[in-house]
Each structure stands twice: as structure tokens, then as C-alpha cells.
Design brief:
Strand content of chain A: 15-25%
Number of domains of chain A: 6
Helix content of chain A: 40-55%
Largest sheet of chain A: 6 strands, mixed
CATH class of one domain in chain B: Alpha Beta
Radius of gyration of chain B: 21 Å
Strand content of chain B: 5-15%
Number of strands of chain B: 8
Shape of chain B: globular
CATH architecture of one domain in chain B: 3-Layer(aba) Sandwich
Radius of gyration of chain A: 31 Å
Number of strands of chain A: 31
CATH topology of one domain in chain B: Rossmann fold
Distance between the termini of chain A: 76 Å
Order of helices and strands of chain B: HEHEHHEHEHHHEHHEHHHHEHHEH
Largest sheet of chain B: 4 strands, parallel
Oligomer: heterodimer
Strand order of the largest sheet of chain B: 2-1-3-4
Number of helices of chain B: 17
Shape of chain A: globular
Structural class of chain B: alpha/beta
Largest interface: A-B, 83 and 76 residues
Chain lengths: 1002, 417
């Protein structure tokens, strides 16, 4: 290939470019204006060794020549320094390559193993790299392929046959997994899932990475994933609406960085082959200082006694054939694996199964049941069976299992078998960490990982695979590491780059394996459990879950907490074992389980549908067994399942009530078909249209502002409740990808208002919120207070309208009307102070009456619950959490589980927060403390706190709310919400909560 | 019902006698000088410039992991110092700053108390260093003369930091700039027990002496390296612990770091008192007082600026805050006052106006005010100042230096192109 270089650097020169990415190494050799050699290989973190080999392979080409060399790539810096070679930042290399080879390019999208970049060429060179989020990179795609149990190539081929796309969170791999897993379990086709994963990558790139800049013009796509995955290319082209001329997929896509580095090298010194080899060899000898930790075992003896001690915690296993009599089956259909156990009347295990569910748990369980029937024949009678885990409902319906129980209960039942006085259980599985404390023989508090999967098994698995090891082998390597690396404890993304850094510094696989194990453990202890000292966990700890089968993890855990723990020999099967014990203890007598014949003939099909029950349009998966039995999943309320309730049966739901109340003010249904000329003054007789974005602080103050503007003769246009589509409309102008989802939605609301055609848009800056005299201060959080400032700076479309974002004091009628008059009269004629004052007074009255309606509905709900003997859930968040796109129907889920749902503001009108150990700064948050106080003194009330991902303020409030509740011996439940649309995990939490309440006898 | 208030362990008069007050490293030069003032008023103070053990780890163990990084580090540092074995745990008190605004930083002191309790040191008194009468301790009071001295320390600190940053990249003898900073810090400490040193004439004389010393290091060399501005959340902006030694990294990369001063932050806080009245007509007396204080501080800042402009032409002078403040017009409203608020935008614009178009904007991961005033303002700043080359860097306990360095390098390679 000809390399055209306007600066003539390549003429008569030999240039060598080396690009060391996070997973691959690339070489490019340019000789006299011609690309004479290129190569692309995975380096399995043996960066320096691999480079040496690759150079050695082209000795023929390089010998007897003098050439210049430059290294580039995210993992190339360490080697470049150690080998005294020049280093070029990789984005810069890319830019250089593009400038020479395709100068008319407007933007480059480059996806690598762990990096994602966009380079804008027109309008000033500007680059974007993924900073703290690796969602949408090659590593993410790899992980997803592992989850689907296909190779990358297979996933690509599958994706091309997709029929529909599911929404998958693209923010980060953890959330995407949580979205994908249920899709798999619910039987969505792999083709659709594969394409949806690619779409998630595209969304992440376009929405997150571009940070407010539209990707237009001629776009070039570079890097491994975009070179190999046709499905991914297709998604990009379609989403960015590119035609053939504007979407460039160059054949040198893999080597662009290496070529760029080669071009840059021309400034540097010339060297020969022998010199280069010498320097690379030198670099291998150097080991930079990495922060390391003591080894897991000081000597062989310590290891031996560790092994002996754990061998004691065993359940008796008596294998096939010998046993005759009653038997119980327990199935744990987890997120990534399916486990099955058969036990005897005397609680011995006679059959076990543990395997990845390969995306189709029904097939696995069927196969296993048949195997059990075949193996044992008539010698056992199945007296009962129970299922737990993600796929509980599916398996229960498919095979007529007697009991379904929530995972936490199953685990506790199993742990009790090994230590009846167990007071703490930690279960680390494929992608979840669950842990719970036992107090007075009942589950006391439950903690699940929500924001982070770095403490989980699938993470180690993916890592092991990427380094070319099986999980078992990888774990064994870690046991005898002499200097485990310190990898930190944040999310997978950061862990990836920590490993990158360790590799850069020359850490061995052993050291990385041990380091990862320790990170997993620290994550569990300090991030999920958040313990300050080992004593806080408990005295008698049982650890379980597949991840603890890894001895390195087990050892790290014991060392970190400084106490020996019990790890049963069936640590990976505890859920299933617990389910079997549960079946045994509840003795149904005869199991309803399908017979061998019925299992053999079971027909299972699944298809997807969209629920038309309400505007939420839930995507449903309909599973049909034998053509008649149906199981519908994906629905957020009873409507999707086809159940109709009478008014008397309907449980009060304050979230729903508040939504209806806001809707009743009107302004939402105004369509966008009458766009008025925006700059011209409104015609006589025609009302001026003012747009109110229904997001953040507007939610609670909508009655106020709606009334004020209506009184002043404006027609109020509201953007309405958020939807996924609305989010998509404004996604491209979000400058900070770590801000909370409610704020991100604001961009879509503004776009919606502009579409509807308004003369002005109003979202004021409110440093101070309503003063309810319940705190030390009454601020808004910075995001709610000042988001207008950000919108003004980042949404170009706002320039076509009048955007009103005055700083207002809403606690003083006179002052508020002075400020409003000031700003309104700047843009509109006939605004008089006296009119504004009257409007403001009416508005404030309306706001008060709105709050009163909420208070009295709150009272009614509590009364209703007490009359009918229902549990009350205080679903505590912020006023804007009632938005259906923000709370994702969690309120409806709670009512479907039998709770009467009240909001934090509806029941705290005359409740004051207790004495706090934090500063009570914010109005909305004061209500949380008050709600916690109320729940503390009412046995029939449970507080569940909704927390938006990225909410810095809630880092303060969550701990305090928990402390208030726990000091009063109440359970605390927290649910983190984001773009995430799946309710599976939430269901587990709420069911565990119910389970725990039942155990406590409440 | 009414609002109940939590009680806290007070720093009593008796404690003043034999308790050691531990001060965290927030601004290395400034805080050292300021804590020296406390010493000269009879307090026993230990400024924590050493790092005890793994500060990050202790922070992670005792503070909610999603709390901002500065809180985590400050608390981790204090707790580690408590446990270092250097002190009698029953004879120490901790000192932490408190601003009292709408940012969660106002909660640091509470989080610190919580962490202490969690670690079993609930009895250790925590003193709030604030200028808003937020908390009172019988044994700890800031008198007017003390405040005066502290104020001069802030100015000394700014002057030294400003000039040292401009000397360090060009010094002939490695380390001479830092040695000079050390020499002056010690000299100012020595002086501080004499009443005469409070006289403004003396302070002015010191300004000249300090400036002369630094000017000697620079000589007549031209400051021709790429200049990189550092702005951001106050802790990660100034503290090497918070920003992974950003300044020395920039130096190593052949750049000259330009860090706007600490006094600007003080002026920003004072000015917000004026704004509150302008926007909402609240607290007129505070606004009146703020106005007087603002003019007073501004005058002192202008004195240094004029001095530098007149006598030290090779240096970039101290900014004039009244100019800095006006620059945000058309970008962000001055009502945005939580955290660093509009000051952050103002500092970026100030740097650009001085020709420092390359800027690192630092913030803790998930910093709420910076979503608005930092990252949220980059697009308009770049649009109106096409040469601006700004990179936002997030700092948190899990972030590795390599990712941050890569991004900064990218910015630098743009700067050099």
C-alpha cells in the first residue's frame, strides 16, 4: 500500500511503528513510501516478550538497514521508556495516520480493547477518550460474548440475523449484563441480543463519548472490534445515518496507530536491527516497582493446613445406585450458571450438577431431570422439589416445581446446615455478591452489589480467559504468587487499567491472579458490605458461591478479615442445596414435578411482544410450554400478565397518584404540530407559549410554575413524562457522562419542548429550595439547582428560543415576583409587577394545595393498609423519582408484591428528622431522614431508598438513613437506579425483604 | 416538635494546654503557614506533611466509597495519623475546614466524626475551621489579629506558589526553588511570634524580599515552556496527594504549571455574600460586610499584582480577582455558588486571557458542582475561545495514574502541535 505523506517523511526512509494496545500488539513498517509489512497479534499481557518476538520475525526485513522507531498505544509507554524508544500518544498517532491517508475525514471513531476514542478533525482538532468508563469497548464485547457463550465471530454472524433490538444499558458492562441476563433467561434469541449489544456500544460511543458533539460528515472507523464485527459496523452506520461515501472502514483499520507512530518516528534517531533487539532485551530485564502485597501463604505447611481445615466442612455424598427411598430436588437457576442437587431423606447428596446455563436454562434443566430419572429409575421417589434464582419463575412453570423461593432464603437454609449458629453469609457468584447478616435466626440485612461487578466470578473468568488460562489454572497460579500486585478496588473498568499498569510494569500472571483475588475480596468487604472491621461482619461466617471455590479468593478473604471461615465443599451448590432442604422441610408429600415422559415431551417456545397496557410499552417475553401454559416476563405491572384488578383490590400507590395529579394540570398532551415562528413577537389574540421541562426540580414545582404562567396568560406546554425515546433525543448534548440519569433526561425534555413549538422555555436556577424548616439548611443539590447553566452552554438548539433560567428566591412572594417581573418583561410585553405578584400568590397557594392532596392521599394509603392488613413501603427518593423512566416501575412492582406504596413526602408532613450525625443541608433529603424516623417507629412500614447512580449527595444520605433505621432495629433496603430497565434484581431484593420480614414474624 | 441538634465533642480551654491539633495537607504551602499562626498563638499544632501508611485504604474503609475523593483522603490521612503511634490518642484534636454551602463538602466534618466513631475514636474533638460561625469550641477561637495573620499567610502562600511555579521549570540547580520555599516558610514561622511582623509595611517588605529571591532563580531567562493551567475542585487542584502529583508530572513532561491562587477562592466565597443579596435580597447585613471585606482583600491582592507588574516583568503576575470575576458573563451565572461554582469557569477564562490556553480541569469523580461549572462549560468556552485546549481529569481511589497521564499527554501533544 502506498503511504502518501505530504511532509515527505517516508521517502527513502524506513520507519517502524509499534502499537501496544491493552490486548493486542501491532507492527507497521513503511519503506520508501510503501507499507511493506503489518501484523496484528494478541499479546496476552506479555508485552515486552511479544514485541521482541514480533521484531525477531522480521529480522530479514530489518537487517542491514537503519530505520527509525516509535512506540504508541495505551500499554506501550512502559516498554518505550524501558527500551529507550520514543513514545507517541496513540490518539495523536491515529490523527497523523488519518491526515496522511484520508485527509477529508471529519471524524474518527476508534474502538480498542479497553479504549474508545473519537477524534474530530473539522472545526479544530478535538479528541475524546473514554476516561472513567469502559462501556462500549472491545473488552466489553468480549465479556458479552462470553456471557452468550459464543465466540466473537459467532456473535457477529448472529447479530446480522437479528429481527429486533432490546434496550441494553450501555453505561457500563455491569448494567449491560444485568439487562442481558434476563433476556437470555427469558428466551430472547441470541441474534437479537447480539445486535442489541452492538447497539449498546454504539449508544455509548455516540451518547457518552462524543460528550455533546454530533458526529457528522465523513466518519472513519478504526480498531479491532470495528474491523472484525460487521454487525457492529452496521449498527454504527444505521445510527449515525451515514451513506456509503461517508462511512469509511479502511483495510488498514487495525494498523492505523502503528502507521501513525511510524510516521512520527521520522523525527527520532536512526538505529539498526541489532541495536533495537538489544534495547528490547534490556527492557525485559528491568522490572519497575509495582505496589505489591505479601504472598498468600508463607510456606507449604501453611498451605497444607489451610487445605486440611477446609476439607472438614463437607456434606456427605453418597453416589448413584446405593440409595433407595424419598428424594428432594433443589435447583438454583442463577444468572450465569445452573446448579442442581438431589438429596436423600437424611440430607445426604446423591446427585449434583453445576454448569454454565449457556443462555438456555430450560434445556439444561430438562436434560438434567431426564438424567436423574434415567440414573435412579424407580429406586428413588421424588417427594418434593424447589427452585431459586433468576430463572425461578421460568423453571417453576416449565417443570411444575413445587416451590419457588428467593435466593437469599435458599442460601440461609443451606448455610444453617453447616453451622446452625451462622451469623453472616457471604455469597459471591458469577455476577452478584450477596451477603446477609443473621440476627435472632432471621435474615437481618441484605446487601447486594449493584454498581459494581468487580467483586465477582465472571470478572475473574473473563480475565483468566483473556490471558489464556482456564479459571482453575488461573486460580492455582495465584496461590503461589510471591508478590501479588495491588490492583485497587473500584469497578471492572478501573481494574482493567490497573492490570494494564501492572502488566506495563512487568507483573507476572501469578501476581496478577493473586492481586485480582484480593481485589475481589476487598470489593466485597469494603464496597458491598462496607465493613470497618472484621468483627462487624460476624463471628461465624459461611462463605459460598462459585467464586469461593477459588482457593486464592478464599485465602485472601480469611487473610483480609483475619479470621477463619467455613467454606463448604459444595460452596458452588449452596443455593440448590438450600432449595432441596427447603423442599424437604416443607414436605409436600408428593411432588407435582413433571414425569420423565412429560419432561421428554416438553415443548418450549418463546417469543417477544410489546405490552399495550399503558404508555410504558414494556417489552415482554412470552414463554409457551406445550402450546398452552404461558409465562410472561418483562412486564412491570399486572397488566402485562393479563390480570385485571377491581378498584377495591388496587393497592394505593402514591407514585401513581402523584403522576396522575401532575398530569391533571394539563399541558402534556399539547402536540408539536403548531410550531410558531420563534423570534417574532406573538400575534395578537394568540397566547404566548411557555415550555416547562418536566424533569429534576420541575417535578415538585410544576403546580407552582404552571399556575403562575397560566395566570399571566401564557399557554403552558409541558414536555411530559420521560421515555426512552425522549432520552435518545437529547443524548448527544450531555457533556458529563457521570452525571445522574434524571439530569441526563433533561436534555430530552428540552428537545421535546422545542419540537412542540414554544416561545420560551423556563427552568429556573434555585440555589435554595422550599424551606420546610426541617434541616440545617434548605439547599437544592448542585445539579438540580444549576442544570440550566449547563443546558444553556451545551444545547445549541436552545439558541432558537428564549431560555429563561433566572436565579429565584421561591420562599418570598414579593421577592419572587420582583425577580420574575425583571426577567419576563425583558422578553414579553405587558408584564406588570402587580399581575406577577397576584400570579405568584395564586401559584404558591396551588403548590400548597398540591402538597396537601399528597399528604391526604398518604394518610388514606396508610389507613387503607392498616384496615386491610397490608405492608406499607415508603419508597423514598426525590420528587423526580416518580418519573416512569427513572423509577422503571419499581412502585408498580412493589404493589404487585403486596405493598401499599407511599412516597417520602406524602407521610412526613409533620414528622421531623431525628438527631443526625450529618449536616442536613438539602430540602429533598431532609424528607428522607424524616421518613426513616417515621419507619423506625412503625412496625408495618418499611423504607426502601431509591438512589440514582452517580448521585454524590446520596453518598451522604444513604449511610445516615441506614443508621437511623438500624439503630431502631429496622431493615434498610437500597435500590440503585440508572438507565437500567430490568427489574429482576429489584424483585429479588424486595422478595428477600418480604422473606426477612416473615422470618421476623412481621 | 422542633429540630433536635446533634452534640459534638468540644475542644475545651483545658485542652488548649496540652492537646496537639492535627492539620491535614490540603494546600501544602498555605496550610503550613496558616497552622504556624496557630502555633504562635499558643496552640500545639502538627501539620501532616508526612504520609502515614495507605491513606486511600483507610479512607475507603471508613467513609462511604462514593463520597468525594478529597473527603476520603483528608479523613484517611487524619485517621492514619491518629493511629501512627506518634501521639497520645487522648491528647489530640483534629482540624478540618468547613464552608457551609450547598455542596456536600460542607458535610466533611460530619463524615470525619462518623469515621472517628466507627474506628473507635469518638472522643477525639474535631475543630471546624470556618469563617461563618458554624460551630463553636470554647478552647478554640479565631481573634481578629489571628485572622489578619492567617490572611497574610494566604497572600504569602499565593505569592510563593505563583513564583515558584514559574521558576521551577527553569531553575539551574535542581531543587533550588523548593529549597527557597522551605527557607521562607521557616523564616515566616520564626517571625510570626513578633507583634511587629503584623504591620502591613513589614508584610510588604517581605513580599519584595520573597519576590527578589525567586527572581534571582529565574534570572533573565525567558519562560518559554508550554504553560499548562491547573484549575478544579480546591483539594485535588492543590494537593499532590489528591491529584497524583500533577504538578511534578507536568514538570517532567516539560511544561510549566500555572495554578491560580488560594486567595481567589477566598474572594469568591466573600463575593457570594454580595451575590445572595443581589439575586434574592437575603441577608443584607452580610452583603454589606462582604462588600467591605471584598474591597479590602482586593486591595491587598492588587498590591501584589502591581508590585509584580512593576518590578518582576519576567513573571506572570497575580490575577486581579475583580477582572477574573467579570469574565464569566455570558458563560455562567454568578448565582452558581456551590463548591467552586462560577469561580472554576472564571479561572479557566482568566488563564485563557493570559495566554494559558492549555488547561487541566481536575475534579473528584462524580463531583456535582463540576458537572455544571467544569465539564458543563467546556463547550461554550471552546466555542468562544477557539484556541482553548482543555482536558477534564477525574480523580478517585480506583483511578490509575496511567489513564490520567494518557489524557494529559494527549492534551499536551495538542498544545505542542
Amino acid at each position: 500500500m502506498k503511504i502518501h505523506d505530504p511532509k515527505n517523511r517516508t521517502q527513502n526512509n524506513m520507519l517502524l511503528g509499534i502499537d501496544i494496545g491493552s490486548t493486542t500488539a501491532k507492527l507497521a513498517v513503511i519503506d520508501d513510501g510503501e507499507l511493506v509489512y503489518s501484523r496484528y497479534e494478541r499479546h496476552f499481557s506479555q508485552v515486552r516478550q511479544k514485541t521482541l518476538e514480533m521484531i525477531d520475525d522480521i529480522s530479514e526485513l530489518l537487517k542491514d538497514r537503519s530505520f527509525s522507531v516509535a512506540v504508541s498505544g495505551s500499554a506501550g509507554l512502559g516498554m518505550a521508556n524501558a527500551a529507550r524508544l520514543s513514545f507517541v500518544q496513540e490518539v495523536y498517532s491515529t490523527a497523523e495516520c488519518v491526515r496522511c491517508l484520508e485527509p477529508s475525514t471529519d471524524a474518527v471513531i476508534e474502538l480498542g480493547g479497553e479504549d474508545a476514542k473519537i477524534i474530530f478533525f473539522t472545526g479544530g482538532l478535538d479528541e475524546r477518550m473514554n476516561g472513567s468508563c469502559a462501556g462500549g469497548t472491545g473488552a466489553f464485547i468480549d465479556q458479552m460474548a462470553t456471557l452468550l457463550n459464543v465466540s466473537n465471530t459467532e456473535m457477529d454472524e448472529l447479530s446480522l440475523e437479528h429481527k429486533q433490538l432490546y434496550p441494553i444499558a450501555s453505561r457500563c458492562g455491569v448494567f449491560a449484563k444485568t439487562d442481558i441476563q434476563p433476556l437470555i433467561n427469558q428466551g430472547a434469541t441470541k441474534a437479537d441480543i447480539a445486535a442489541s449489544i452492538y447497539q449498546a456500544v454504539v449508544n455509548q460511543t455516540v451518547g457518552g463519548l462524543a460528550q455533546g458533539r454530533r458526529i457528522t460528515g465523513k466518519v472513519m472507523f478504526l480498531g479491532g472490534p470495528l474491523y472484525y464485527c460487521r454487525g457492529l459496523r452496521e449498527r454504527f452506520v444505521e445510527t449515525l445515518k451515514l451513506d456509503e461515501d461517508n462511512a469509511i472502514f479502511p483495510h488498514y483499520g487495525l494498523y492505523a496507530v502503528a502507521i501513525g507512530a511510524a510516521l512520527y518516528s521520522s523525527d527520532g534517531e536512526l538505529m539498526g536491527y541489532d541495536e533495537l533487539i538489544k534495547r528490547l532485551k534490556e527492557s525485559m530485564k528491568q522490572k519497575e516497582t509495582v505496589s505489591t502485597l505479601p504472598p498468600l501463604f508463607s510456606d507449604k505447611n501453611e498451605y497444607q493446613s489451610f487445605i486440611r481445615r477446609h476439607a472438614q466442612s463437607s456434606v456427605k455424598t453418597e453416589y448413584a445406585g446405593a440409595y433407595k427411598g424419598g428424594a428432594y430436588i433443589g435447583i438454583d437457576c442463577g444468572s450465569t450458571t445452573t446448579k442442581l442437587v438431589v438429596i436423600t431423606e437424611s440430607r445426604d447428596i446423591i446427585y449434583t450438577y453445576y454448569s454454565s446455563n449457556k443462555g438456555n436454562p430450560v434445556a439444561i434443566v430438562r436434560e438434567q431431570l431426564l438424567k436423574i430419572y434415567d440414573t435412579f429409575g424407580d429406586s428413588i421417589i421424588i417427594r418434593g422439589c424447589a427452585v431459586t434464582g433468576y430463572g425461578e419463575e421460568l423453571i417453576k412453570t416449565a417443570f411444575h416445581i413445587d416451590y419457588g423461593l428467593v435466593e437469599t432464603m435458599a442460601h440461609y437454609t443451606a448455610a444453617k446446615f453447616f453451622d446452625k449458629d451462622v451469623d453472616f453469609i457471604l455469597d459471591i457468584g458469577g455476577q452478584d455478591i450477596k451477603c446477609f447478616k443473621i440476627r435472632n435466626s432471621s435474615i437481618d440485612s441484605i446487601m447486594l452489589n449493584e454498581a459494581c461487578s468487580s467483586g465477582c466470578g465472571s470478572f475473574i473468568e473473563t480475565f483468566a480467559k483473556s490471558m489464556g488460562y482456564t479459571v482453575e489454572e488461573f486460580a492455582r497460579q495465584g496461590l503461589f504468587s510471591t508478590a501479588p500486585v495491588d490492583l485497587g478496588t473500584r469497578c471492572t473498568v478501573f481494574m482493567n487499567s490497573s492490570v494494564k499498569q501492572a502488566q506495563k510494569d512487568g507483573a507476572s500472571v501469578q501476581d496478577i491472579s493473586a492481586g485480582l483475588s484480593l481485589s475481589v475480596v476487598k470489593n466485597a468487604i469494603y464496597k458491598v458490605i462496607r465493613a470497618a472491621s472484621p468483627d462487624e461482619l460476624g463471628q461465624r461466617i459461611v462463605v459460598q458461591g462459585g467464586t469461593f471455590m477459588n482457593d486464592a479468593v478464599l485465602r485472601c478473604f480469611e487473610k483480609e478479615i483475619g479470621r477463619n471461615v467455613i467454606r463448604p465443599n459444595i460452596a458452588g451448590l449452596m443455593g440448590a442445596f438450600g432449595a432441596a432442604l427447603f423442599a424437604l422441610e416443607h414436605k409436600p408429600g408428593r411432588s407435582a414435578l413433571l414425569s420423565a415422559e412429560e419432561v421428554r415431551n416438553l415443548k418450549h417456545e418463546s417469543r417477544s411482544a410489546v405490552c399495550k397496557g399503558c404508555t410504558n410499552n414494556c417489552r415482554l417475553t412470552v414463554n409457551i410450554f406445550n402450546g398452552k401454559e404461558r409465562l410472561i416476563s418483562g412486564n412491570q405491572c399486572e397488566k402485562g400478565a393479563g390480570i385485571k384488578l377491581s378498584d377495591d383490590e388496587k393497592l394505593p400507590n402514591l407514585y401513581e397518584f402523584k403522576r396522575k395529579l401532575i398530569e391533571s394540570y394539563g399541558g402534556m398532551d399539547i402536540a408539536g404540530d403548531t410550531p410558531s415562528p420563534l423570534t417574532a413577537a406573538p400575534k395578537k389574540g394568540k397566547k404566548r407559549r411557555i415550555g416547562l421541562p418536566l424533569a429534576l426540580g420541575m417535578y415538585e414545582l410544576y403546580p407552582l410554575w404552571h399556575t403562575v404562567f397560566s395566570e399571566l396568560g401564557f399557554e403552558v406546554v409541558c414536555s411530559g413524562f420521560s421515555t426512552r425515546r425522549l432520552y435518545g433525543k437529547g443524548q448527544f448534548s450531555i457533556p458529563s457522562d457521570t452525571v445522574c440519569y434524571p439530569a441526563k433526561l433533561m436534555h430530552g425534555h428540552i428537545e421535546t419542548l422545542l419540537e412542540k413549538g414554544v416561545d420560551a422555555i423556563f427552568y429556573p436556577c434555585l440555589t435554595y429550595n422550599v424551606n420546610e424548616h426541617k434541616g440545617d439548611n434548605f439547599y437544592n443539590c448542585p445539579v438540580v439547582a444549576y442544570y440550566s447553566e449547563l443546558l444553556q452552554g451545551n444545547m445549541d438548539s436552545l439558541r432558537n428560543t428564549i431560555f429563561l433560567c433566572p436565579y429565584l428566591n421561591i420562599n418570598n412572594e414579593k421577592e419572587l415576583s420582583r425577580e420574575l417581573t425583571l426577567i419576563l418583561s425583558k422578553h414579553f410585553d405587558g408584564i406588570r409587577r402587580a399581575d406577577v405578584l397576584r400570579a405568584v400568590r395564586t401559584g404558591i397557594d396551588e403548590y400548597k394545595s398540591y402538597m396537601h392532596k399528597i399528604y391526604s392521599e398518604g394518610e388514606r394509603a396508610v389507613r387503607f393498609a392498616r384496615e386491610k392488613g397490608r405492608r406499607i413501603m415508603i419508597l423514598a427518593g426525590r420528587p423526580y423519582h416518580i418519573d416512569p423512566e427513572i423509577c422503571h416501575g419499581i412502585d408498580k412492582l412493589a404493589t404487585s408484591l403486596g405493598f401499599v406504596v407511599v412516597s417520602e413526602d406524602s407521610v412526613t408532613a409533620d414528622v421531623y428528622p431525628p438527631v443526625l450525625s450529618v449536616l442536613n443541608q438539602w430540602t429533598y433529603h431532609s424528607r428522607l431522614y424524616a421518613a426513616a424516623e417515621l419507619a423506625s417507629h412503625n412496625d408495618d412500614m418499611q423504607l426502601v431508598q431509591l438512589v440514582s447512580f452517580g448521585c454524590g449527595v446520596d453518598a451522604v444520605t444513604t449511610d445516615e438513613v441506614r443508621a437511623i433505621l438500624e439503630s431502631n432495629n429496622k431493615l434498610y433496603t437500597q435500590i440503585k437506579i440508572d438507565e437500567i430497565t430490568n427489574l429482576g434484581a429489584v424483585r429479588i431484593r424486595l422478595r428477600s425483604l418480604i422473606g426477612a420480614l416473615e422470618e421476623r414474624g412481621q | 416538635m422542633s429540630l433536635a441538634k446533634a452534640d459534638y465533642v468540644k475542644f475545651t480551654k483545658e485542652m488548649k494546654r496540652d492537646y496537639t491539633i492535627l492539620v491535614p495537607t490540603m494546600l501544602p504551602i498555605h496550610f503550613k503557614l496558616i497552622s504556624n499562626v496557630l502555633v504562635s498563638y499558643g496552640y500545639k499544632v502538627d501539620f501532616l506533611d508526612k504520609v502515614d501508611g495507605n491513606i486511600k485504604e483507610s479512607g475507603l474503609k471508613l467513609v462511604h466509597n462514593d463520597t468525594c475523593y478529597p473527603a476520603l483522603l483528608v479523613i484517611g490521612q487524619l485517621i492514619n495519623a491518629v493511629e501512627s503511634g506518634r501521639y497520645d490518642k487522648h491528647k489530640i484534636a483534629l482540624l478540618i475546614t468547613q464552608t457551609g454551602g450547598g455542596c456536600r463538602a460542607s458535610n466533611y466534618i460530619y463524615l470525619l466524626r462518623k469515621a472517628l466513631k466507627k474506628a473507635g475514636y469518638g472522643y477525639i474533638p474535631v475543630i471546624s475551621l470556618n469563617f461563618n460561625n458554624l460551630e463553636k469550641h470554647p478552647g478554640f477561637s479565631l481573634t481578629l489579629p489571628m485572622l489578619y495573620r492567617m490572611l497574610y499567610c494566604a497572600f504569602y502562600g499565593d505569592l510563593m506558589m505563583l513564583m515558584a511555579n514559574q521558576c521551577r521549570p527553569y531553575e539551574r540547580n535542581v531543587g533550588e526553588t523548593d529549597r527557597l520555599v522551605k527557607k521562607w516558610t521557616e523564616k515566616l514561622l520564626e517571625e510570626s511570634s513578633h507583634a511587629s511582623t503584623m504591620r502591613y509595611s513589614h508584610v510588604k517588605k517581605n513580599y519584595r524580599l520573597i519576590a527578589d529571591d525567586f527572581a534571582r532563580i529565574l534570572g533573565n531567562r525567558e519562560r518559554d515552556k508550554v504553560k499548562v493551567g491547573v484549575v478544579g475542585e480546591i483539594y485535588v487542584k492543590f494537593s499532590p496527594l489528591g491529584n497524583n502529583n500533577l504538578e511534578s508530572f507536568l514538570l517532567k513532561e516539560g511544561a510549566e504549571p500555572v495554578v491560580p491562587g488560594f486567595v481567589d477562592f477566598c474572594l469568591y466565597c466573600v463575593y457570594n455574600g454580595i451575590i445572595d443579596y443581589d439575586l434574592y435580597r437575603i441577608r443584607p447585613f452580610k452583603a454589606f460586610g462582604s462588600k467591605i471585606l471584598y474591597r479590602f482583600l482586593l486591595g491587598k491582592q492588587r498590591y501584589i499584582r502591581n508590585m509584580m507588574q512593576k518590578y518582576y516583568k519576567g513573571f506572570m503576575p497575580m490575577a486581579d480577582f475583580d477582572e477574573t470575576r467579570k469574565r464569566v458573563k455570558g458563560y455562567i451565572g454568578m448565582g452558581a455558588k456551590m463548591g467552586e461554582g462560577w469561580l472554576l469557569t472564571a479561572e479557566m477564562l482568566e488563564l485563557i486571557s493570559e495566554g494559558v490556553t492549555n488547561i487541566v480541569c481536575t475534579q473528584p469523580f462524580g463531583c456535582l458542582p463540576n458537572h455544571i461549572a467544569g465539564k458543563g462549560m467546556m463547550k461554550p468556552i471552546k466555542e468562544k475561545n477557539p484556541g482553548a485546549n482543555i482536558v477534564a481529569i477525574d480523580y478517585d481511589p480506583g483511578a490509575t495514574a496511567i489513564n490520567q497521564e494518557n489524557r494529559i499527554k494527549l492534551m499536551l501533544s495538542n498544545a505542542k502541535a
